Amino acid sequence: MNNFWTDILKFSREITNRVGTHLLPDFRQVQASQKADGSLVTHADHWSDETIREAIASRFPSHGVLSEEGEHKFPDTDWCWIIDPLDGTTNFTRGIPIWGISLGLLYRGTPVFGYVHFPPITQSFHGFWYGESGVTGPNGAFMNEFPIHSSPDELSSNHFFNLCSRSSLMLQQPFPCKIRMLGVASYNFLTIASGAALGGVEATPKIWDLAGAWVIVQAAGGMWVPLESEPIFPLKVGQDYSSQSFPTLVVSRSELVDVFKSRIQYL
After folding, report:
1. CA–CA separation, 258 and 141 (whole Å)
2. Which of its termini does the chain have fewer beta carbons within 10 Å around, N or C?
3. Are 224 and 200 in contact (CB under 8 A)?
């Protein structure tokens, strides 16, 4: 199994680096069109999606794939990759250098490995977290190959809490932290994994926004708190995830769940 994970990590590093290197010349140079849900998409999103899907099919032909720009129905395979080929398309088109490529590998519907690469800021995150899957292998969360852990700090007005534009009206004031809006769901969550922020909330993330970061946050000691009663994982075979959102709070440690949840008005 360790050889399997070595291959998975090497593949993830290589394909996201290759895609990121190709996308960098298009950064702030491309025009976007609007999808039905109001989000933006560019030819770069489509190229990245196709390139990653082809690479997975070549290296891991028995694995399924679910992606933002491709197949949206969860397949009937033990192993499945969930791809966000360009997380942060608006940042990408407007010239803000926080955007990335996100991969999550699921076993029987639950993520066990995540890899997220942000080319403009040269940060790459990965992690292994197996929960009750029965899968075994290496453990931990990493940024640029160095171990990371969520912050043990006590709450203060000099710490950060991240949100998305759709969740800005959900916070009750006064709020106990400084608020930041980064424009990329996965990076929002990963700042909590790396200890840069104590919490974050996203009102309408899709499954490709979550899958890679979900593993890394938990491997780093953070907590994932769905704001709806149904658990996110395991995903259901045959279900279409194109329009389903998963409102989510992420915190650095369990003691902060009630603190932040009490300040969030989720309707």
Report:
1. 25
2. C
3. no
228: tokens are 């709806």
Q: Does residue 110 contact residue 133 with C-beta atoms inside 8 Å?
A: yes
Strand partners, 126: 115, 142
From CA 59, how far away is CA 48, in angstroms rounded?
A: 17
Q: Is pLDDT above 80 for 192?
A: yes
Q: Which domains does the chain have, with CATH numbers?
A: 2-147 (3.30.540.10), 160-261 (3.40.190.80)
Say whether pLDDT at 230 is over 50.
yes
**Chain mean pLDDT for the chain:** 91
Q: Give CA–CA dist 105/40, Å, rounded.
A: 25
Q: Which helix (H) or strand (E) holds 7?
A: helix 2-23
How far apart are the C-alpha atoms of 16 and 11, rounded to whole Å?
A: 8
- Give the separation between CA 217 and CA 143, rounded to whole angstroms: 12
Q: Cα 202 to chain center, whole Å? A: 11
With 0-12 CB in 10 A as exposed, 13-18 as middle and 19+ as buried, what is 253? middle
* Tens-place pLDDT, residues 151-185: 999 999 999 999 988 887 678 888 999 999 999 99
pLDDT tens digits along 231-266 = 899 999 999 999 999 999 999 999 999 999 988 886
Residue 90 pLDDT level (bands cut at 50, 70, 90): confident
Residue in this structure with the two tokens 């066990």, named with its chain if needed: 112
